[in-house]
Amino acid sequence: MPVSASPPADAGRQSEPPADVAALIPLVRRIVEARVGNHPAADDLVQETLVRVLAAASRVEPGLLEPYAIVTARNVIASLWRQADRQRRNQHRVVDLRPAEEPDEQVLAVEEQSAVAQALARLSDREREALVAHEVAGEDTHALASQTGSTPGAVAAQLNRSRARMRVEYLLALENADPPTERCRPVLLALSSGDRRRQREVDAARHVLECDLCARLSQPLMERGQQRDDEVHISVTSDADVVAARQGARELASRLGFRATDLTILATAVSEVTRNIVRFAGSGEVVVELVERPRRGVRVTARDTGPGIHDVEQALADGYSTNAGLGLGLPGARRLMDEFAVVSEPGHGTTVTMTKWLQEG
Ligand SMILES: [Zn+2]
Questions:
Q1: What is the value of pTM for the model shown?
Q2: pLDDT at 83
């Protein structure tokens, strides 16, 4: 029986109108059937394709939806055959008991590193420095903005563009491919950044149908580019993730214009709920998102599938610290935030939802 200490905050967010993916079903089915006939996996292939197209729909300009469905169907079918082929080979291994030919992991790691290095080398010095300071040294957009006399919003937008370029250059380096046409890079970049206007301008719809390389790369680009820029997911398994969660929250909140003291308060509360996951559940997830309604603010959802809390009221009572004297515990986190709710099902896990509103004016 779930116990709720206070009602969950209103989940207010506008969403994009749903793309007309249903209209694509006959097309996708035709492609799948043309290639695999009545194979029992045909339905799965159609569904898998639609799931992927749907996931990318908000980042694809309407005219690109159909070509994207076509290349996605082809990619899904190709990866099915690869999988089936791998299974056949593995079955063979079971019979002949020869040592398996594992891909040399070290070789793969070296290839990956060199792809990252090649991709970084293609960025401008400024882009590279900002990206490394942010992703490696963990500097937030606020700090980067004050160093360069810019605004956190402009820095975040620039970082997004740099990341989109990194993804393109990384995949090209991994493929060891020089793009066959002048149009490939602009098309890949428009796909990677999910910029629908650019996709139209460079006629990505036509290009992905004509260019094998771009058709193939469109998949990993769209899949990796799905994260929203007003939301951060941190999967939590160790103390290092406490830092990542805190930074993620600070980062988003600073973009909204939170005052320094409120940033610290928010980061402290996020640390507490994340630490709780590490200590008591072992693993879980923290999601930080910007909300617009009923006011502007930052919402944090910390979820785990741990043992749960048997007495939520008691766990939230002042003076009760689940950390046995260390840190603030849940009551402390609750005092720091404007809204705070705990839902726990013993044996199934705990979800903490908390919100800090922007103090305007
Ligand atoms: Zn191309």
A1: 0.51
A2: 66
CA distance 305 to 49: 30
Which of residues 176, 204, 224 is at a domain's end? Answer: 224
64 CA to centre of ligand 1 in angstroms: 15
Residue 278, domain extent: 230-357
pLDDT tens profile 219-229? 888 875 445 56
Claim to verify: residue 301 and residue 320 sit in the same structural domain: yes
Based on the fold, state whether residues 218 and 262 are members of the same structural domain.
Answer: no
* Ligand 1 mean position, distance from CA 206 (Å): 10
In the reported structure, the alpha carbon of residue 90 is separated from the centroid of ligand 1 by a whole-number distance in angstroms of 34
Domain count, the chain: 3
At 294-303, the pLDDT tens digits run 788 999 999 8
Write down which residue in 160, 194, 224 finishes a domain.
Answer: 224
Centre of ligand 1 to C-alpha 84, Å, is 28
Determine the distance separating the centroid of ligand 1 and the alpha carbon of 118, expressed in angstroms.
19
CA 209 – ligand 1 centroid, Å: 9
CA dist 357 and 334 (Å) reads 14
251 and 212 in a common domain: no
The residue among 284, 261, 262, 264 whose CA lies nearest residue 274 is: 284
- Whether residues 144 and 235 fall in one domain: no
Q: How far is the CA of 296 from the centre of ligand 1 (A)?
A: 41
pLDDT tens, residue by residue, 2-31: 444 443 333 333 333 345 667 888 888 898
- Percent over 70 (pLDDT), the chain: 81
Expressed in angstroms and rounded, the spacing between residue 68 Cα and the centre of ligand 1 is 14
Examine residue 4 and state whether it is found in any structural domain, yes or no.
Answer: no
Measure the CA–CA gap between 75 and 327, rounded to whole angstroms. 50
If you measure from the C-alpha of residue 114 to the centroid of ligand 1, how many angstroms do you get, rounded to a whole number? 23
